[in-house]
Amino acid sequence: MPPSRPRFTYAKPAFGSDEEQACEVAKFAERYTILIPGWRFAPTVAIPIPPYMRSTTPLLLFLQLALVCSASLLSAAPLPTLGGKWSGTLKIPSGKLLQLQIDITDTNGKRTASLDIPTQNAHDIAVERVEVRGDSLHLQASAIRASFAGRIAPNGGLITGRWRQNGARLPLLLQRTSTAVVAAAAAAAPTTVSTKSAVSSKNAKRPQEPAAPFPYREEEVRFANKAAGIQFGGTLTLPQGAGPFPAVVLLSGSGAQNRDQAVFGHRPFWVVADYLTRRGIAVLRFDDRGAGQSGGNSATATAADYSTDAQAALDFLRTRREINSKRLGLVGHSEGGTAAIAAANKAQTSSPSFLVLLATPGVLGPEVIVRQTLDISRLKTHDAKILAGVEQRQRALLNIVQQISDNKHARARLIPAMIPPIPLPPEQAAQMQKLAEDKAAMMTTPAYRFMLEDNPPKNLRTIKCPVLALNGSKDLLVAAEPNLKSIEKALKTGGNRDVTVRELSGLNHLFQTASTGAVTEYEGITETFSPTALQAMGDWIVQRAR
Questions:
Q1: N or C: which end of the chain has fewer CB within 10 A?
Q2: What angle is formed at CA 49 by the lines to CA 46 and CA 54, rounded to 5 degrees?
Q3: Is 535 helix (H, G, I), strand (E, B) or coil?
Q4: DSSP helix/strand/coil, 76
């Protein structure tokens, strides 16, 4: 799926009396939909506001719907030692208290960080900037448009500063947790967290996460996209033996994600890599542009840019003697599948041997968005008038973006179109205005515009290598039936004779066994990646890689 700020849509059904209008206003929070283009699994998603979020001010709406991924950072001096967990309480304008937890890791002179908002079920939010100058700390989390600037106490146990988000400046005191205090006191040098020891511990809540010892080799690697001038950090897992082995590159969905595609407490790419490597397939997974140990800027990147990163990854694998250069494939999830298709079309010498498209859009970009919006809206209502209004407003907003190429002019049209035609108290009206401005800015980003112009039916017709396309029947972000049908038709129309398309029953966009497919279910599901989906993918790849 990336990245991405919310946007609401509101359908105003016909009503007559003052009593009916009052009821409509009261039900407003139940009806509007937040759209998050750039969501890491799809170009955009529509998410009806769940009960636990309805009383929260728009100021922190981004925190509740934040994209999750591992963080990257700017290098900083090793002093003071900040490694460990920090917590603080943020008092938002409504008077509610919000608990923040920040995990900072010092490794070999570099710092990374991630943010958790436990009360809002938001975990591993990207903190792409961690900068220390003297006794000052600066954090930047662009995914939620938030930053923190603070002063580190001499004892290294407190950081006093200000949290900024959507125009608000809120005081925040960060304090080390007890475990971090013990670790800091015991260490003479900056705290170092071993990646290998971290991944070898079994997570009881995520039983599919691999645990050491592993029956394969694991190597930290770096490679470059020379044309773009970007260095990438990744992990290559290799089966035991000399090889040469078939190999795949994993491509994540929208937004800057780490190599494990960490989201909602799950790390699906880690599970996929472990499964495929155990079956004799080498796997390269890497941090996206602007995430983890990779350079570059995700804010201006599109699927076309990610396709060149995929080609660079394939070129790197061809330099490895353990890899069979004639058996290299791309496995793309959601927008990662879009990048895989583009890479296969653009590549000359670096063309992949096969493609695996996981929940990848197969219809035109605007149709993906409209179908998303309606499918998720149906979790809240089946009222035909409301759904018709949602679709009408969604299409009107998309038309504005498509018809007006100048971003400034497009935003000037989008903002008033997104303000609900109902009276609001001044404070709420101001918040709604700010939210609409942020959403309009998101809808005019390069990634969003690229997605609207994407034409999978056309792009797929030129793909000649074997293709496997999988979707879950409960995928509400990239609906299985229309997208799989379009993928199959386009490939076969273009003369591709090795096309396998499967709809997997009961699976959501993350390929978890789900009840409804709602995004709000993701974190609570124990399963990270359905064994049925793993086997379908593994069997197909093994057969093509012989």
A1: C
A2: 155
A3: helix
A4: coil
